[in-house]
UniProtKB/TrEMBL annotation:
A Pfam family that the UniProt record links to this protein: tRNA-synt_1e
Protein name stated in the entry: cysteine--tRNA ligase
Domain Cysteinyl-tRNA ligase anticodon binding as annotated: residue spans: 519-557
Species annotation: Populus alba x Populus x berolinensis
GO molecular function per UniProt: ATP binding; cysteine-tRNA ligase activity; metal ion binding
A GO cellular-component term linked to this record: mitochondrion
This protein's record includes keyword Plastid: yes
Similarity comment: family membership: Belongs to the class-I aminoacyl-tRNA synthetase family.
Length: 572
């Protein structure tokens, strides 16, 4: 089986890929279903959705304020208050959300994937609730790390960063992350950054030293309220640059004077470039104003980045206020945070070379976003097997429904199926409104998928009254949930084929080789050589290839390799 290896140094030779051109590049999807406290209203809306377009979508450009007010509540954990709070936007029906983007100097790793999958689900669910979301996600394209990497490669820093920004966008398409409303870059916003620094100086919260400008943390008594850190806890050298000229070791740079070989911009304090933290304060204010609803990012940004953002923004504008600070947990390896600086990372490209991107997305959503998720091959294999099962079930639905014309009329769906739909809808609302509890929703998919498979393949299921109508209703319900989770592929058949291809790559086999093994096993079974037959099955199972016998013959599907299955059992 193929496996991933850690990279302990930045990749020095990258083969850049062409942009994906799949149909999922479409920028929007809309779920038309809203949930009501009463079963009568809920079922009316459900039947309405069944008679609408067969491909539901979440609209990215606009929403209906009244729809938002009729939908279920959403509770989000606010890092500032350290508790879940009922989400109430500043402007009814509209949401302003800023998420800190990548520092573009290398390919993004799966820790980055977790951040942007998390906030993509939040974006999708807000749209599902009917909100018009203005989503801003920046690029840091001016930074010490970018300059260091560019010097290492003998390349212009802005050019290098631009290329990696494009690669990041390709990764987001692979992972089915909807595009933000705007994606500002630091290099394009120097006037806004300089203007904010000037206001901070004018308000007395910063000072100048030899062309540098520093924020004075002593001027802001409430500094540390987001992270809970006391000022004396902030030691220089721990993500705060050591500089004996500073009034307080915890003071941080707003503007850095130009150094030889570095890009620079003119400013009132001389040529230079901005510090890391000021960029997000300036760009969020430029696109969302000084007060907006949600500011998000990874948990590692709570301090110092977001703490310093709050300080800068409040120093520039006394009325600055963000309602909800939302942070996701780490992706870990052996209980250690995955990061480029530690060198223990897998890039998104490395992972999706062996696993389907939506298997990676499912893996990330299988743990609540605020908890750490430990990366392992067995977890990716399990997610890959699970998503194959989901798509195979829905593909089988498509095949049988294509042979029937289903009309959804009053009393068209049996009471048992309506009860199943009600139960799933309740779980959907309860889990997603409770701080986006995606693991609960993913687990709840098991029941309708099992019911569908029973109706498709068992004798008892095939005899059920109005079976086709029930299958169609359940398939649509599952599809709507997958859309909110960002797990709907362009087509089920395409995704299944891609999942098979990835399994073959991990097993280092071709399909022709598997088909040859199936033929050999068929002959062995005919000759009653069951020892050989079992050996072939076991050998393939060890590589993650499961054989399935049926009256129509033997087929194969991806599965968790036997050794990893045993590891999974041992761990539980």
């Amino acid at each position: 089986m193929g496996s991933l290896y850690r990279y302990y140094k930045p990749l020095t030779s990258i083969c850049f890929s062409p942009p994906p051109t799949k149909s999922y590049l479409l920028h929007s999807i809309k779920i038309k279903t809203h949930f009501s406290p009463t079963k009568k209203t809920r079922l009316h809306r459900f039947f309405t959705s069944l008679t609408s377009s067969s491909q539901p979508s979440i609209k990215t450009n606009g929403g209906d304020a009244s729809a938002a007010s009729q939908s279920s509540e959403l509770w989000l954990y606010n890092t500032m208050s350290r508790k879940k709070e009922l989400f109430k936007p500043k402007v009814e029906g509209k949401v302003g959300m800023y998420v800190c983007g990548v520092t573009a100097y290398d390919l993004s790793h799966i820790g980055h994937a977790r951040v942007y999958v998390t906030f993509d689900v939040l974006l999708r669910y807000l749209k599902h609730l009917g909100y018009d979301v203005h989503y801003v996600r920046n690029f840091t394209d001016v930074d010490d790390k970018i300059i260091a990497r560019a010097n290492e490669l003998g390349e212009d820093p802005i050019s290098l960063s631009k290329r990696y920004c494009e690669e990041f966008l390709h990764d987001m398409v692979y992972l089915h992350c909807l595009p933000p409303s705007v994606e500002p870059r630091v290099s394009d916003h120097m006037p806004q950054i300089i203007d904010m620094i000037e206001r901070i100086l004018e308000n007395g919260y910063a000072y100048r030293i030899d062309g540098d400008v520093y924020f004075s943390v002593d001027k802001l008594p409430e500094y540390g309220r987001l992270s809970g850190r006391k000022l004396e806890d902030n030691r220089a050298g721990e993500r705060v640059a050591v500089d004996s000229r500073k009034k307080n070791p915890a003071d941080f740079a707003l503007w850095k004077s130009a150094k030889e070989g570095e890009p620079f911009w003119d400013s009132p304090w001389g040529p230079g470039r901005p510090g890391w933290h000021i960029e997000c304060s300036a760009m969020s204010a430029a696109y969302l104003g000084h007060t907006f609803d949600i500011h998000g990012g990874g948990m590692d940004l709570v301090f110092p980045h977001h703490e310093n953002e709050i300080a800068q923004s409040c120093a520039a504008c006394r009325d600055s206020n963000i309602s909800y600070w939302v942070h996701n947990g780490f992706v870990t390896i052996d209980s250690e945070k995955m990061s480029k600086s530690l060198g223990n990372f897998f890039t998104i490209r490395q992972v999706i070379d062996l696993y389907h991107p939506l298997a990676l997305r499912l893996f990330l959503l299988g743990t609540h976003y605020r908890s750490s998720v430990n990366y392992s091959d067995v977890q990716l294999e399990s997610a890959s097997e699970r998503i194959f099962y989901i798509y195979q079930t829905l593909h089988d639905c498509e095949n049988i429904l294509s042979q029937h014309r289903v009309a959804f009329e009053k009393d068209a769906i049996p009471p048992d199926t309506i009860n199943d739909i009600n139960k799933f809808h309740d779980t959907f609302v309860t889990s997603m409104s409770d701080d986006l509890h995606t693991p609960v929703l993913l687990s709840a998919l098991s029941d309708p998928l099992k019911i569908i498979n029973d109706m498709l393949h068992t004798r008892k299921g095939k005899k059920q009254t109005k079976r086709i109508e029930s299958i169609a209703a359940l398939e649509k319900m599952v599809r709507n949930a997958l859309l909110v989770l960002g797990l709907m592929p362009p087509t089920y058949s395409e995704a299944l084929q891609q999942l098979r291809e990835k399994a073959l790559r991990r097993a280092k086999l071709t399909e022709d080789q598997i088909l040859q093994k199936i033929k050999e096993r068929t002959v062995a079974r005919k000759d009653k050589d069951y020892e050989k037959s079992d050996a072939i099955r076991k050998d393939l199972a060890a590589l993650g290839i499961a054989l399935m016998d049926s009256p129509d013959g033997t087929s194969w599907r991806p599965a968790i390799p036997l050794a990893l299955q045993e590891q999974q059992v041992a761990s539980t």
